[in-house]
Design a protein that fits this description.
alpha/beta; TIM Barrel; 493 residues; 2 domains; Alpha-Beta Plaits; 16 strands; globular
Length: 493
Amino acid sequence: MKPSAVTIKEIPSRFRHQVPKYKITRSDACINCGTCARTCPYGVHERVEGHNRVNPPIDYKCIGFECRSKEFCCIGKCPRQALSLSLNPMYDTLGDYRWTADIITATWIMAETGYPPTRTDLEYSVGNSGGGFDKLRFKFPANPPYVDTSQISTAIELNRRNDGRGNVVISTPMYGGGMSFGSVSLPTMVSKAHNATIWNTFTCSGEGGYPENLIPYDDHVITQVATGLFGVREETIQRVRIVEFKYAQGAKPGLGGHLLGEKNTESVARMREAVKGTSLFSPFPFHSVYSIEDHKKHIDWIKEMNPQALVSVKVSTPNDVDMVAVGSYYAGAHIIHIDGGYGGTGAAPDIAKKNIAMPIEYGIVKVHRFLKDEGVRDAITLIASGGIRTAHDLAKAICLGADGAVVGTAELIALECVRCGNCESGRGCARGIASTDSELADLFTEEWATQRLTNFYHAWNVQLVEILQKFGMKSVKELVGRTDLLEHIDYSN
């Protein structure tokens, strides 16, 4: 069930030439009769009215070899046999073992159409990492009780303490990750906030301050207080419904935040009260917090400044993350946000990303069980991040014990990120998503990006509802902690 404000409409790619899985070749035998344009239902071939030539094939729309058996297949219909189909060798250069080319392509399709791909040639429920979520599968019952999809709720409550503060309910169990002004472009930030408003959920400002462009979306923005205190303002804390302390992030626990000098432009420096062109490093940890009592002072500070705000605590996943989580509960937090080692932060060293933090699938189970043993699990909301690539990952995270998840990289993929890995550079993002360069940041509009994200969230919501229906569940809350509904393919029969 989606909010009534959500409107789905097709929003095409900014680029005619994406990285397609297949290559359609048109030989010199073509006589531009237009048969291919008339018969292809996927829009691979176009012939503009009044033109006497067929446009070059839009390869990324092709469903590939499965089309050969279709009556409308362009290759079979061509009277001059001028068309041929082959795999595109460039496709294998897209992505990596976790973010496979199929997952990236499927995410682009979802952002364009608002629905999961109907193509059978894309494996977008799992990657090829050889571990983690990619090894887990759902154990769907053979005959679940029938539940109409319109009756399935994906809403979750974020305040479970019953402490008189805001009763915040989001319509989908996910919200946008913290990406600071400086790490991503302003159109990226604003479109994330606008989409969060449409979906009645949240996005996080990150640790770079609170640009004025976000003010219209205050009720759906989480402002972050990180160790560097960049851009932290009393008026900002008073403006929002959720404030998040970021103690550490999964991609680089123990290292603090990084913004390299190339991305510290004049506007970024002004927001962070820093010197233009200097590299900005947040310390680790908060040097005023060394105990639960110190932690409580921080939380009480926020609660005093904003009597209605909920407090979220973001931490990485060290071995004692369960102790950190329960400590945050007793300090007064409403949300414990655990960030696993797969989190994608552009400036994080590879050695940190690959070797320090616990994978999120282990962290979720560890925290969920410890909070249950302490008797406080139902009084705090557990949010997971760091490696949530697909709607199936989201559902698996909930099965493992999370109430919901934060989505970061997947949102950028929806905006046509190609995971080139140049996020830390001012002009490194050729697509303007993670750029502070004014020329690159204007490569897309807020309206285009908002609709892409709205479509993307809808496609994920559709898949989540389908999963719940297969289990005969009426609410996503029924899925929380149901590890019995998962199997590990290495240990199953």
